[in-house]
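This part of the workshop introduces the protein records we will be handling. An example says more than a description, so a record of this kind follows.
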Amino acid sequence: MFNSTFKPKPGSPFSSFATPKTRMARTAMKKRAKKKPTVAEGSKYLAACRGEPCYLNVLCGRSDWADPTVVPAHSNQYRHGKSGGMKALHYFTVPACMKCHEFIDQGKATKAIKFDVWDRGFERWEPIRAEKMGMQEATECAF
């Protein structure tokens, strides 16, 4: 028979016999995890954009009719949760037609111009969305 003398070191994070101090630290890390918004919480902001006119109005001109190409345009700003391959939080969406949405995402304008256009559209959209959803924006936004 083969008799191995290998035994895991006590206190090793890979050991099944972790010390009480290590177990407490792991529990504390689990408790610190941020609460992520659920799909249902985010989708209510996306649903509010349906049937609305374009609020960016950079390439389409000002229109008060619901364009069938209008979809929620997420912010591209880091302060709104945008990073790497992740979109910004659904709270930071504005109804935008296909042309204006393309301008914000792939247009050749500078970031400053794009951010300014998006911010102005959001300023117009936010109170209308609050009224449409029947909420107070200051208490509803969980970011």
